């Protein structure tokens, strides 16, 4: 799922940003124990700062996308949310999810499949691609959220897009 890919992209960009920071702090010349910026390195420093700012922007964009995916998963019912979160956000295998939830693997696999179907329906609603085959639970708002669990209302996600 996209969450795993986004996590890897973010980690790589953070490493790249760390390298840029090291490059920026090592730029300059020491004169009498003081770091002095030379004219030749001023342009280099500007380039490093521009890259650093752009990396920050990209990292934030990917974090926002990852959070929106997580918020969308939170619209599902408890069992479906739990399975998808453990698998795609926490990175567990379905077998590990089944063990952790103390459920049979087949039950967990079925819940996973159902959750993906419901998640697709939510995404279709968001994109305006609704059809007559949509499950009754989505139509009637069973996944409309729960204030006690902090889940969001499907309308909030649709309206916020």
Give a written overview of the molecule:
- By secondary structure, the chain is mainly alpha-helical.
- It is built from 7 helices and 2 strands; from the N terminus they run αββαααααα.
- The chain has a two-stranded antiparallel sheet with strand order 1-2.
- The relative contact order is 0.10.
Count of helical regions: 7
**pLDDT averaged over residues:** 78
What class would the helix/strand composition place it in?
mainly alpha
Oligomer description: single chain
Q: Please give the share of residues in helix.
A: over 70%
Task: Point out poorly predicted stretches.
Answer: 140-161
Radius of gyration: 23 Å
Keywords:
7 helices; mainly alpha; 161 residues; elongated; two-stranded antiparallel ribbon
Q: What is the structure about, briefly put?
A:
Helix content is 70%, strand content 4%. The chain has seven helices and two strands. The longest helix is centred in the middle third of the chain and has 35 residues.
